[in-house]
Amino acid sequence: MISEYLPEFNSFHLLIVCIAFSLGGFVKGVSAFGLPTIAVPIIIFFMSLPAAVAIIVLPMIVTNFVQMMISGHIKLTIKRHWGLFLPLFITLPMGVFLLSSVETTYLLITVGCVLILIASLEISGVSFAFLGRREQLFAPVIGAIAGIIGGITTLYGTLPVFFFIAIGLDKEKFVAAVSVLLFFGSIVLMLSLHSMNFINATYLTYSILGLAPLFAGMWAGTKVRHMVDQVTFKKIVLILVMLIGVVMIYRAFS
Question: What pLDDT does 131 receive?
Answer without folding.
Answer: 74
